Every structure is written in C-alpha cells, then in structure tokens.
Predict the 3D structure of the following.
Amino acid sequence: MRSLFRRRSVISGICGLLLMTVIGCAGGDSDVASKDAQTGDRSTISNEDVEPLSVGAIPDQDPEKLQRLYEKLTNYLSIELGVPVTYQPVTDYAAAVTAFKLGDLDLVWFGGLTGVQARLQVPEAQAIAQRDIDENFHSIFIASVNSGLTEVKDASDLSELKGKTFTFGSETSTSGRLMPQYFLEEAGVKIADFKGEPGFSASHDATLKLVEAGTYDAGALNEQVWLDRLAAGEVDESRVKAIWQTPAYYDYHWVVNSQKLDGVYGDGFTGEIQAALLKLDASDPEQAEILELFGAKKFIETNNDNYAQIEAVGREIGKIQ
C-alpha cells in the first residue's frame, strides 16, 4: 500500500507540474514574444507569435512583374529579419500613401513624390534606402515615330511639344509626371500648350504602349523602365523612340515608420531592415535576381533631406499642400 501511495503521489506531482506548464504556456507566449521583441531577440519566437511585416509599393509597373519581384524580396527579408514578411499590393499611388498613413503598410517602396507625401503625414517616418541609380535618376521623353518630333538636344527644343498630344504616367508619379512637368515648365511649355488634355496612363508601361500605338504623340516615363523594356526586346523601335533625357534628380526610396516598427519588433529594428536591404549582393545568384528586378546593382543609404527638391516642386505644382 505504501508503495502504491508513493507511485500515486509521484504521478500526481508529475500531472501537477504538467498542468502548471500547460497553463504557463497558454498564458505566456505573448509575454515571451513581447519580452523578446523589446530586447530585439526574435530568434526564439515562432513566426505565429509575431505580427507580419507588411511590405508595399507604388504600382508603377505591370502587376505580374511587381508580384514576382516582391515575392522574392519578402522571402529574403523574412529570412534576414527573422519575422514573417508579406507583400500587400495596392490599386494606385494614392492608396500606397494612405495605407502607410493608416499603418496597414510598414515598409513601402515609394517614388520621390509619394515618399514625401507619406512622410509628411507620418512624422516618425524615415527614408532609409534607395537604389544606386536613384540619387541621379532621370525621366525619358518618348515620341511616336509618326509624330514628326525629333531629338531634343537642348531643353529649349521642348517647345516642339506644343500642339502635340502628350501623356504622363500616374498623376503623382515623380518620374512620370512631377519632374517631367517641372522641366517642361522650366522650358516654357505649359500643360495648356498641349493639344487637348494630357493623358495620365497610371503606369510607365502603359505610357510606353500608348505612345508606341500612336494614341499620343509623346509621353514621359521612368528611364529605368524604358531601358529595361528595350533590353528585353519589348519595345517596337520602328514605332516609338526616345527624344530627351531630363536632368538628374532623387527619386525612389524605401520608407518606414521607425517608431512603430521599433515598438513592435524591438529597438533597432529599423536599422536591421536597412542593413538587410544594403546587404543585397549581386554576387549571390538569388539576391542578384532581386537587384536585377529592381534595375539596380545595389541599395545605398538615403535620408529625408535628399528629397527637399521633390517637396519644393510638389508644392510648386500643387501636388503637396
């Protein structure tokens, strides 16, 4: 009897310990996750315990190409950062700004103008990285071969566009609208000088196709998209040609709400995101594919001050109040 009693006591004790463990686990996961997030240690946290990092981008290109790009990027970031990362597509440029403002997007690939618009609405937001090509970015003016337009050798020759039909990209695109309009006005060409109302195609690819088809005599688009489509053989050069490259300006960049992210994932998390982006290496085949899809050799650091010109031009033409 005494032996049986001991066995029952041992079993009872083990059950009690197991019950306490279960109760502790049931109530402690969030505490552990919270504590580890505060200390920046996410190595012991299951992905199920961590709020996904939501990545977005302005829809400036073909949706299928963007989906391919961001699927590869989010997989890379999830491994580097140790948290789940998801890509959330948006319908237009304004939706990307609004989603960032509301906190629905945490890390966003903005153009120069949309990045400024977003940061003005989220005071804690920071521009943290850009491609190597973005500190000296250009727009390309293209023309239908049948338009009669010739190469613009000097900005003053932009007057040839008066009386022609013209399309921009998105209304809030830096390279497809803001800076092209700025340089046109600098050359004395106003929107009212075009034949009819200018078009707003919504994306660089659409601008290219519209001018190629002869729907518009000319248009302006992102230089990187133009060069990429040429290299891929996707441009019918018997129907459309480049006629002018704009002066350089700062453009695309990654923006984060650093205060929010450091609060959710731990102090210094913004720096970890920046480091992961800067770490992308063209010598690694998988990372090289990400960089190639971005049209870059690498990412470099940037900061909010680099977009002062974009903000000034945005205010000048009424895109920033």
About this structure: The chain is about 45% helix and 15% strand. The first strand starts at residue 53 and ends at 57. Confidence is low (pLDDT under 50) at residues 1-40. Residues 261 and 310 are 26 Å apart (CA to CA).
